[in-house]
Amino acid sequence: MKKKLCLALSGALCLSAGVGCGTETTEETLTPVRLNEVVHSVFYAPQYVAQELGFFEEEGLDVSVTVGNGADKSMTALLSDSADIALLGTEAGLYVYAEGKADYPKTFAQLTQRAGNFLVSREEEPDFQWSDLEGKSVIGGRLGGMPEMVLEYIIKENGMTIGKDMEIINNIDFTSTAGAFLGEVGDYTVEFEPAATTLEQSGKGHIVASLGEASGYVPYTVYMAQDAFLQAHPDVVEAFTRAIYKGQQWVESHSAAEIAKVIQPQFAETDLDTLTTIVERYQKQLGIQGPVITYNGAMILDSADRRVLYRQELKADDARLILEAGLNYDTTMCIWSDNKLYGNKLNDRIQEYSQATKVTPLLMPSIDELLAQGITKILWYDDVSQIQQIEKELRKTAHFHNVTFCTSKPFYLEFFSSKVSKAAAIDCIGKLYDFTPAETIAIGDGFNDLSMIRYAALGVAMANAPDGVKESADYITARTNNEDGVAEVLEKFVL
Fold first, then answer.
1. pLDDT of 309-350, one tens digit each?
2. Who's near 247: CB < 8 A, 6+ residues apart?
3. pTM of the predicted model, to two decimals?
4. Are the C-beta atoms of residues 415 and 405 closer than 8 Å to each other?
5. Which tens digits make up the pLDDT trace of 71-114?
6. How far from chain centre, in Å, is Cα 306?
7. Measuring CA to CA, which residue among 101, 98, 118, 95 is closest to residue 42?
8. In what order do the strands lie in the sheet with 475-476?
């Protein structure tokens, strides 16, 4: 493949927790859960979103949070029964296990998969390279802790020997590293947010590198509990995991500004603009940056700030006919308007669709109100047999003039402008970011992916794609999209 590469993924390739749905509850029935977090950092935004938006309460939990300020202290809280659950680095559990304890803590969920700290220098270094640490000293955190071990890994990967080529200062308490740096200890320091940005704003430090970007994926911060607690309260553990997953989904689908606004009560000492900047920094570190094709190609969003780069809406007359027909068929309609999800019925079907899209549905207003906002896409959700019958009838009787409709799943019938296709969207991105069809890979699993599979230099169909999609593909994965089929493509053609 060429140096520049556009990787187009079907919108159908969504991650799922696979743990079911929570149940509504009242304050009187909430189960108390004591959570000790290793440090209070913006890095743990999904947890704070779950707290602030009531996801724990939705799952029947009353979660109280204390801060350990160090993995050793958080583990002590867990072992001494001062906490039911601890959020800390994976290494802490391994150390306890190595001691031979019968009731050792176990990991049951993971919150982060990259290091969440940053390298701060005394001077601006716009062209910083890790080799620049040669002959220097770095405040690295507690010996044997995840921040320090990840730093060691990065140093070794960049060909340096600790103690010979550079020095790691690892005898300073976790909460005192920034203060020590201000006190002229070390040439660099490794800090979480908001401490890193605070140093930068003071003019005494400059963020020059992300340890998360440099180290790659690691099982960084996880939730642990004693085995006895896991065995006695499996329903509580499952509910807690669901709430955290809801927080992760929400963070993934919202902008930095929206995330910062929700979690600001957790960081009252940090102004909203600064908090937004910090969240943006983490998003760039942890997520795939670049344009995102959505609504079958009807809209292209910038993943960093949710800015609309391209939009192609249904014509008003056509949208009205589709909505009126949907009401006549009494089918469940999922309507995308102004980047919001509306439903003519807030039933189980639209709730299921909502979970897949990570967007909370709103009750549909009048047709005129929707048309005034503009409608990007309409999806009908019904029994497979009903969808098949409706599609057959519409092929013969529909009076849509500028509409394309197809089944993305056997129970989904989707309507969008005839000018819309995922291929057209990829072509639009190519013009925006200067790449050609010869530099693209498209991966899909449904009939709505056919245009981009045919367009790309390498069109890939998932193992679970319909035969009609597989016939148009250059490559068919051995694994489904629920079995890391995308990873298979990346390993074979990209890495």
1. 888 899 999 999 999 999 999 999 999 998 789 999 999 999
2. 45, 46, 47, 48, 49, 50, 53, 55
3. 0.56
4. yes
5. 888 999 999 999 999 998 888 888 888 887 777 899 998 888 78
6. 14
7. 118
8. 6-9, 440-444, 458-461, 475-476
Predicted pLDDT at 13? 33
Task: Please say if the pLDDT value at position 47 is more than 60.
Answer: yes
Distance CA 391, CA 396 (A): 9
Cα–Cα dist 246/46, whole Å: 8
Q: Which tokens is 413 given?
A: 């019938």
Q: Are strands 412-417 and 375-381 parallel, antiparallel or unpaired?
A: antiparallel
Whether the ω angle into residue 437 lies within 30 degrees of 0, i.e. cis, is no
Q: Give the tens place of pLDDT for each residue, 204-252.
A: 999 999 888 888 777 788 999 998 999 999 999 999 999 999 998 888 7
Best CA proximity match to 454, nearest among 478, 415, 423, 430: 423
Task: With CA atoms as reference, report the closest residue to 379 among 351, 344, 347, 414.
Answer: 414
- 52 burial type by CB count under 10 A (0-12 exposed, 13-18 middle, 19+ buried): middle
Pairing verdict, β 206-210 and 117-121: antiparallel
| Amino acid letter, residue 87 | L
- Report how far residue 345's alpha carbon sits from residue 363's, in angstroms, rounded to the nearest whole number: 7
pLDDT reading at 460 higher than 50: yes
> To which residue do tokens 């290793």 refer?
38
Is residue 36 classed exposed, middle or buried when 0-12, 13-18 and 19+ CB atoms within 10 A define those classes? buried
- Which residues, in sequence order, are bridge partners of residue 362? 342
Q: From 367, 194, 366, select the one nearest 282 (Cα to Cα).
A: 194
Structural domains in the chain, CATH included, are: 27-108+221-285 (3.40.190.10), 117-215 (3.40.190.10), 313-417 (3.30.1240.10)
Assigned token pair, 178: 């920034």
